[in-house]
Amino acid sequence: MEPKNQTVLEFHLLGLSGNPELQPILFGLFLSMYLVTVLGNLLIIMAIISDSHLHTPMYFFLCNLSLVDIFFSSTTVPKMLVNIQTQSTAIPFTGCLAQMYAFHLFGTMDSFLLAVMAIDRLVAIGYPLRYSVLMSPHTCGILVGGPWVITNLQSLVHTCLMAQLTFCAGSEIPHFFCDLMPLLKLSCSDTHTNELVIFAFGIIMGLSPLSCILVSYICIFRAVFRIPSAQGRWKAFSTCGSHLTVVSLFYGTIFAVYLQPASPTSSQKDKAAALMCGVVIPTLNPFIYSLRNKDMKAALKKLGSKAVSSQP
Predict the structure, then answer these.
(1) What is the model's pTM?
(2) Which family does it belong to (predicted)?
(3) Rounded to an integer, what distance in angstroms lies between the CA atom of residue 310 and that of residue 200?
C-alpha cells in the first residue's frame, strides 16, 4: 500500500545509545545474543522433529514457540546490527511499516502461544485420561492456527491505518525499531482513530492470553492439590516449571515497565520492555526449556550423536 500524502520517505532510528564508544560493545553483545537465539531455538525445533518420543502436543507448541522466537528476534536485531556496523540510522517508510507489522505479529503470537501451552498443561494435569482425545492433532492445529489468523489481522489493521497518515513532524524515531506510538508522534494527521484501535487491540490481545494463563493455572493448582501423595503433586507440577518461568519473565517485564506512572523516561522504559521481550527472553527460552527437561536433553544428545556419526 502506498502511503497517502507522504512527506517523509524514510525514518532514522536513534537506537539504544548515541555514544560512539558503546557501539562496538552493543554490536558484540547483540550479535552474540542473536546467534544464541537462532541456533538454540533451531536446535530445539530439530530435536523435536527428529525424536518421535517428542511428537506430543506439549512439544508441538514448544516447537511453534521456538519458531516464533526466531522470527521475533529477527524482526529487530539484524537491522539494529546493520545500523551499528554501517553507522547509518535510515530505514525506508515501507521497511518501517514491515518491521512494525512483524514486531506486533510475533510479539502477540508469543503471548498467545504461552496461553495455549498453559491450556495444554491444564488438560495434561487435570484430565490425564482424556488428554490424547482432548488434545487431538485437529485441536492442536486450531489452537495454533487461530492465533496466527488473529495476530495477522491485528498487525494488518495497524499497518493499513499507519500507511494512511501523513508524516511531517520529523523523521527521528527515539527507538531501535519502528513501533506504533513513536511513529504516531511523528504524524501531523489526526491519529485519534489509530489510538482508539491501539487501545482496543491492546486490551483484547493483552488481557485474553493473560486471563487464559491465570485461569489455567488456578485450575492446575486445584488439580495438583487434589493429588493425594506429595511425590505425585511434585511430579505433576514440575511439568509446568519451564512454562511458568517464561510466563513470569514475559509478563513480569510488562508489568514492571507499564504499571508505573508516566514519566519523562517512558521512552527508555519502552526500549527496556522491547529488549527484554523481543531479544532477551527468546535468547533464554532454549536454556529454560532444555536444561530442566530430561526428554529434551536426551533428544538434544541424540541429535548431537547423529551429527557426529554422520561426519566422514
Answers:
(1) 0.90
(2) Belongs to the G-protein coupled receptor 1 family.
(3) 53
User: What does the angle CA 58 – CA 274 – CA 33 come to, to the nearest 5 degrees?
Assistant: 70
Q: Would you state the cell numbers that stand for residue 24, as one nine-digit string?
A: 562496538
Is residue 5 assigned to a domain?
A: no
CA 166, CA 252: separation in Å to the nearest integer?
Answer: 36
Domain count, the chain: 1
Domain interval for residue 286: 15-310
Residue 153 lies in a domain: yes
CATH number at residue 167: 1.20.1070.10
| Tens digit of each residue's pLDDT, the chain (312 residues) | 444 444 667 888 888 877 778 888 989 999 999 999 999 999 999 999 998 889 999 999 999 999 999 999 999 999 999 988 888 889 999 999 999 999 999 999 999 999 999 999 999 998 989 999 999 999 999 999 999 999 999 999 999 999 998 888 678 888 888 988 888 888 888 889 999 999 999 899 989 999 999 999 999 999 888 888 888 888 877 888 888 989 998 888 877 766 655 555 566 777 888 888 889 999 999 899 887 788 888 888 888 877 777 666
Residue 293 lies in a domain: yes
